[in-house]
Structures are given as structure tokens and as C-alpha cells.
Amino acid sequence: MIPTHWFLILSAVLFAIGVCGVLTRKNGITIFMSIELMVNAVNLTFLAYARQFHQLHGLIFVFFVMAIAAAEAAVGLAIFISLFHHRETIDVDEANLMHW
Amino acid sequence: MFEFAIFFFFAAVAVIFALVVVLHHNPVVGALALVASFFALAVMYVLLEAPFLAALQVIVYAGAIMVLFLFVIMLLNLQHRREEPTRPVQQFLGYTGSAAFLITLVYYIVKYAAFQALPAGTFNSDVRMIGTELFQAYIFPFEMVSILLLAAIVGALLLSGRSVRTSAQ
To answer: What's the average model confidence in pLDDT over B5-17?
Structure first.
């Protein structure tokens, strides 16, 4: 059996990579993919603790997180399509106004 | 020992493909690398005795969500665009900030969360148990998630459907 903290460290590494992507990139889709990466890192933490404490709640939270990530991806990508129709770019620096 | 070999191999796969997502300039390559990273994470879920969620990870994340990403990238034809690099100070702060964050996280995980042993007995997390829990204790959040998904469908149609809006005006 693999100890729980190794999974936690892997999750921390993936989360930090996601943070790095959000902070250093300008392409909106890449930033969005980095956010998905962070969401998955947190899912891994939930499952590691679920096994450590023999609790089903962690698994159910992962289920909900997946559903909400799907909803978030749909709306977020729709926003990028709308932005692209208006601005011909998805550079997030160009999208600094709520109304255009 | 065999389990450890699998863990390290797929942990390395997950981290390397995650780095490709963040560092590669072409978003199509990034999306495909993210799919590979999610597959490696599904292996981690199997190692954590959650095979149902591993299947969900492959079907929902690698299957549905990433196909949506790829569709949008190809629809907008983003793979030929040059991305403007961010300012050097932002690059520096981003890399050092996330590295410092990682070091802090690993330090505190090793210090406070280094569990020596797992509890005895097998962790029974089959689909029947999850379903029973989901439809008894978590029935209200479950229904709220279905409403949320409906709202997401309506929102996505409203935001991205150009013809819908022009015909309404």
C-alpha cells in the first residue's frame, strides 16, 4: 500500500504547476486548462484522504466537483467564444472591460 | 513493490504532461497533454481504491470536458496564433511564487500529514455504496447539481449562440 502523503505531494506538485500556468500565461484557454489541472489536484487530495480515513464523503465530493467542473467548462468556453466574436482574440489582457 | 513502480511511473507521466500544458505555446498540444495527464490521474484513483471515480475521470474529464476544449480551440483556429509573452516581471513572479508555494505545501505535508499507517481493513467504495450515499444523505446537493448543469446549458447557449441573439433582437 502506498502511503497517503505521497499522493498529497503529487497533488501539491500538480496544483503548483496549475498555479504557475495561471500566473504566467496570457492565452485564456491555457489558463482555463491550468484551472482544470488544479481542480484535479484537489480531487486527488480528496480521494487520498477518503482512503486514509475510510470515508465515502470524499468520493462523493469528487463526484460533485466533476459535475461542477463540467458546468464551469461549458460556461467558460462559451464566454471565450463570445469574446472571440467581439475581439478576435482570447488574450486575457484584452478582456479588461466587463462591457464592450 | 509493483504498486510503487506503477505509482512513480504514472506520477511522472502526470507531472510531465502537466508541465507540457503550462509551457507549450500551442493550445492543441496543451489540451492533448492534459488528456494524458488525466489518464495518469485515473490510474492514481485506481491505486486509491476508487475505481468508479477512475472510470468517471476517463469518461467525464478525458472524454467530455477535454473534447469540449479541443472543439473550441479548433473552432476558433487558435493553434496558428502567436501568443504574446507576458512581461518578464510577471514571468519571474509567477515562477518564483508557484515554486515557493510548492515548497511550502510539501514542507507542511511532510511535517503534519505524513501518516505512518493506513487503517486496517479494506476500504469498500464500490458503486453501490456511493449510490446509496448519494441518493440518501446527498440527495439535495445532487438535485442542486442537476439544476446547475441546466443553468450552465442555458448560459452557454445564450453566450455563444450568435444567431439566437440576433434573431431575438
So the answer is: 95
For chain B, say whether A82 makes contact (Cβ under 8 Å): yes
Q: pTM for the full model?
A: 0.90
Q: Do B155 and A59 touch (CB under 8 A)?
A: no
pLDDT of residue B166: 54
Size of interface A-B (CB pairs under 8 A): 234
**Cross-chain residue pair A2–B7, CB shorter than 8 Å:** yes
Asked if residue B65 belongs to a domain, the reply is: yes
ipTM: 0.91
Give the residue ranges of DSSP H helices in chain B: 2-23, 27-47, 51-56, 66-75, 88-112, 127-136, 139-160, 162-168
Domains in chain A, CATH or no CATH each: 26-87 (1.10.287.3510)
> What residue of B is the nearest CA neighbor of A23?
B94
For residue B115, tell me if it sits in a domain: no
- CA A57 to chain CA centroid, nearest Å: 21
